[in-house]
Design a protein that fits this description.
Peptidase_S8/S53_dom, Immunoglobulin-like, hydrolase, Subtilisin-like protease SBT1.7, SBT, four-stranded antiparallel beta sheet, mainly beta, globular, Subtilisin-like_FN3
Length: 266
């Protein structure tokens, strides 16, 4: 609104938009999987807010970062990987404060297995790079976590909280990939967890044995096996599934990624 015709001034009303739908979404510039160096480890682990974040700013350069910008400001609106890092670091610090005895692997497990990757209606997060639904290579998990996850994965024998199966595309028959994992009860005594499985049925079938884990006491460790039976698919095909362990209150979730690659890459 122009409020003066002699000395031109522009008046605008500022407001904050809330409850924007869909939200959150995966940024177009977000780094993505698969893991080029070690495809057997699913990446990314997590994603977190990284677009247009209000953050502290150095007075050594102007807010645009250009040499001609001589302004000095205390804060700036920033996008990029430097923004998700403090978000996740802050969450890790909260977990460490609540559980000072936990090691780094336990903290990472808590963040990864209690984060979400869908909206409230269970549809996958939107990927702005494609305009379509995201997958575990895009989102990993989105950081909204429970400080008491119930169960934790450790790093013994690469006991990773997610699953990445690499299948030779040259195989003309079904290929079986087996994962063995252990879960540690960090919750109450006497909890029973049951698994639910989502399989990419056309490309692969996922099964878990046993389907129920009974924890009689805190810090008890239980083992299970996850098996992927993959069909013959074209080179470069990716398929995604998911498993969830739940006791009716806590949910420990892990994505499963199946990738058909050259045999020499495995």
């Amino acid at each position: 609104m122009i409020i003066s015709t002699v000395h031109l001034k522009l008046s605008t009303k500022l407001s904050t938009r809330v409850d924007v739908k869909p939200s959150p979404v995966v940024a177009a510039f977000s780094s993505r999987g698969p893991n080029i160096v070690t495809p057997e480890i699913l990446k990314p682990d997590l994603i977190a807010p990284g677009v247009n974040i209000l953050a502290a700013w150095t007075d050594a350069k102007g807010p645009t970062g250009l040499d001609i910008d001589k302004r000095k400001v205390l804060f700036n609106i920033i996008s990029g990987t430097s923004m998700p890092c403090p978000h996740v670091s802050g969450l890790a610090a909260l977990v460490k404060a609540a559980h000072p005895q936990w090691r780094l692997a336990a903290i990472r497990s808590a963040l990864m297995t209690t984060a979400y990757s869908t909206y409230e209606d269970e549809s996958p997060l939107l990927d702005l790079a494609t305009g379509s639904a995201s997958n575990p290579f895009d989102h990993g998990k989105t950081t909204k976590f429970r400080c008491d996850p119930g169960k934790l994965y450790s790093v013994n024998d690469l006991n990773y909280p997610s699953f990445a199966a690499t299948i030779p595309s040259s195989a003309n028959c079904k290929t079986t990939v087996v994962f063995r994992r252990t879960l540690t009860n960090v919750g109450e005594n006497g909890l029973t967890y049951r698994v639910s499985i989502s399989s990419p049925r056309r490309a692969a079938m996922i099964s878990v044995t046993p389907k129920t884990l009974v924890f009689r006491q805190k810090n008890e460790v239980k083992a299970y096996m996850l098996k992927v039976v993959a069909a013959h698919m074209w080179l470069g095909t990716n398929a995604f599934g998911r498993i969830e362990w739940s006791d009716g209150n806590n949910v420990v979730a892990s994505p499963v990624a199946d990738s058909w690659i050259n045999a020499t890459q495995d």
